[in-house]
Amino acid sequence: MTRPMKVLIACEFSGTVRNAFLETGCDAWSCDLLPAEDRSNRHIVGDARELLCDGWDLLMVAHPPCTRLCNSGVRWLTKPPNGKTLDQMWSELDEGAALFSDFWNAPIDRICIENPVMHKHAKARIKNYQEFAQSVQPWQFGHPETKRTCFWLKGLPPLMATDVVEGRTARVHRMPPGPQRWDERSRFFPGIAKAMADQWTWIWEQDAGRAAA
After folding, report:
1. CA nearest 127: which of 149, 97, 91, 167?
2. Cα–Cα 20 to 30 A to 113, which of 80, 151, 160, 199?
3. Ramachandran region of residue 128, left (φ > 0), alpha (ψ -120 to 50) or beta?
């Protein structure tokens, strides 16, 4: 019998992905600068980069800060929003790219980083950058809405759809500005989290079983 897979869910305070992996029997932990929304004792408050060398079997970066990396924010690099300067915009881009680089180049065999499509300036700043391996939609996993999500994968197969449903509403995209919009945009879909936990735990168990044979 193989030991449980040791999983770090970085940049998550909701516990959605962590709990999905826990339900499959994994030794799963979440980490974020914010405390756990569900007050779980399997959450670490702090910088996840400080934990990357702790012997994890899988690193899942649930929703790293992506405002300066994604295509939708590239316009701010030439015309900054009110209250910001161009220097600040480019500095924040450098910080975001460095964070992505640290996760992508972590000493962990299996890595998934979730992020929107990136612009060319972000790609140029990421060490050992590779294009995303897959993009998925919530409606492929039981949620009747649209929100394209890209996965950068290392040592993991693409996810297979589990429950294709009707409905193509861009719910989060259409939300009015407000304090809850950021929270909702960064919240992971439980159907996708369950697919990750089920499919990637199974792959790890097969690999671990072959290594032990």
Report:
1. 97
2. 80
3. left
Structure tokens given for 132: 């995303």
Strand order, beta sheet including 6-10: 43-45, 27-32, 6-10, 58-61, 110-115, 149-154, 134-136
CA distance 195 to 156: 13
Nearest to 60 by CA among 92, 12, 26, 105: 12
Q: What is the pLDDT of residues 27-48, one digit of tens each?
A: 999 999 999 999 999 999 999 9
Other CB atoms within 10 Å distance of the CB of residue 180 = 10
Angstrom distance (rounded) from CA 49 to CA 19 = 21
Beta carbons of 52 and 106 less than 8 angstroms apart? yes
Summarize pLDDT for 15-25 with one digit per residue, the tens.
999 999 999 99
Q: Is the dihedral of CA 108, 206, 160, 18 positive or negative?
A: negative
pLDDT tens digit sequence for 151-168: 999 999 999 999 999 988
Distance between CA atoms of 211 and 159, rounded to whole angstroms? 23
| Residues 133/158, Cβ–Cβ less than 8 Å | yes
Q: Which amino acid is at 104?
A: W
Report which secondary-structure segment, H or E, holds 29: strand 27-32
pTM of the model: 0.88
